[in-house]
Amino acid sequence: MPVSLSGRSFLKILDFTPDEIRYLISLGHEFKRMKMAGTPHRYLEGKNIVLLFEKTSTRTRCSFEVAAMDLGMGVTYLDPAGSQMGSKESIADTARVLGRMYDGIEYRGFGQDIVEELAANAGVPVWNGLTTEFHPTQMIADMMTIEEKFPTGLSGLKLVFMGDAQNNVANSLMVVCAKLGMHFVACGPKKQMPSPDLVETCREIAAQTGGSIELSNDPLTACKDAQVIYTDVWVSMGEPDELWAERIELLKPFQVREELFAVAADSAIFMHCLPAFHDTKTTVGKRVAEKFGLTELEVTDETFESARSVVFDEAENRMHSIKAIIYATLK
Ligand code: CP
Ligand code: NVA
Questions:
Q1: Between β-strands 228-231 and 269-272, what pairing exists: parallel, antiparallel or unpaired?
Q2: What is the rounded CA–CA span in Å between residue 74 and residue 118?
Q3: The ligand 2 atom nearest the CA atom of 168
């Protein structure tokens, strides 16, 4: 049966079958080809979407806006202070109002329960643009990017997530790898490992797809023969600044550096959802350097700038993949 996601929300990768995920990835490649060729694709003219951001963003916001404009749609952006949601109006009431005006709603913010509640009440598709627990749109872009570098297919590839292995990006990578028959390793300190429940769920999925899920506290063993080494910030949005001292202490041994690529596959690539702290050219980077004496955090500048680094392909693919998600759910 052909895949149809029409009318569906996109809240977490767990909600989708391997075929549905593969369909979104290939649709992302298709939209990228159209964009590169200059082929117009204003397939959703007359429709409108709203973007609700309770946390900051560069890639996700711009991807939704450009994708919507390329598809011929209207788009409204509401910043963290720009709506009544939460303070003067409940999530459910906000969803019911926006669902009367818009054809789709993007939400970036805090608990996964919020985006689930929006979707339960909106009557139109809701897309998760990042919650504390998951970052599912990032996964379609990441899998597109890996496929560009390994065109023989995703199944069987080994992806190691280094660092804060319990955050939204790590959780989502573990799920998508399990769904697509990949070998996922969460490598970090014991305190920052994914929840046992999610690990068990992913192991059950992986048992069906030929993938595997491993937990490790040893970077050199974890990265052996890996095709992908992935990392993310050590303190995520919404977490208190006071965590920096503890996280630096815990996560320093899990910094991604050239030494890890010496044991990885020859063709191995470096990935990061961005933004990244690889130098001191940001206010946070500068402050951390002054306070803790570390000028590079989750990844060294050498690896970030190396030929193996595909982080800007990954960032570009956010737009093509988000266009695929909007189109597939609204067409
Ligand atoms: N990767 C990502 O979601 O980036 P933004 O926070 O800039 O949207
Ligand atoms: N884990 C990061 C991802 C940013 C795209 C955060 O939540 O801040």
A1: parallel
A2: 20
A3: 1
CA–CA gap between residue 228 and residue 127 (Å, rounded): 27
Specify whether 22 is catalytic.
Answer: no
User: What is the number of the ligand closest to the CA of 274?
Assistant: 1
Distance CA 292, CA 288 (A): 6
Ligand 1 centre distance from Cα of residue 126 (Å): 18
Spacing of C-alpha 222 from chain mean position: 22
Dist CA 219 CA 213 (whole Å) = 15
For 78-109, write each residue's pLDDT tens digit: 998 888 888 899 999 999 999 999 999 999 99
- Collapsed DSSP state (helix, strand, coil) of residue 298: coil
What angle, rounded to 10 degrees, do the helices at 112-122 and 91-101 form?
50
Q: Using CA atoms, how far apart are residues 298 and 122, in angstroms rounded to an integer?
A: 38
Q: Whose CA is nearest to atom 7 of ligand 2?
A: 236
What residue's CA is closest to ligand 1, atom 3? 60
Q: pLDDT by residue (tens digit) across 155-213?
A: 999 999 999 999 999 999 999 999 999 999 999 999 999 999 999 999 999 999 999 99
Distance between CA atoms of residues 40 and 72, nearest Å: 9
pTM of the predicted protein model? 0.98
Burial class (CB in 10 A: 0-12, 13-18, 19+), 171: buried
Query: Which residue, 279, 68, 254, is CA-closest to 170?
Result: 254
Q: Which of 22, 59, 61, 108 is catalytic?
A: 108
Q: 228 forms bridges with which residues in the sheet?
A: 159, 269
Q: Return the closest-CA partner of residue 174 out of 155, 152, 159.
A: 159
Say if CB 117 and CB 134 are below 8 A apart: no
Whether 276 lines ligand 2, by a CB cut-off of 6 Å, is no
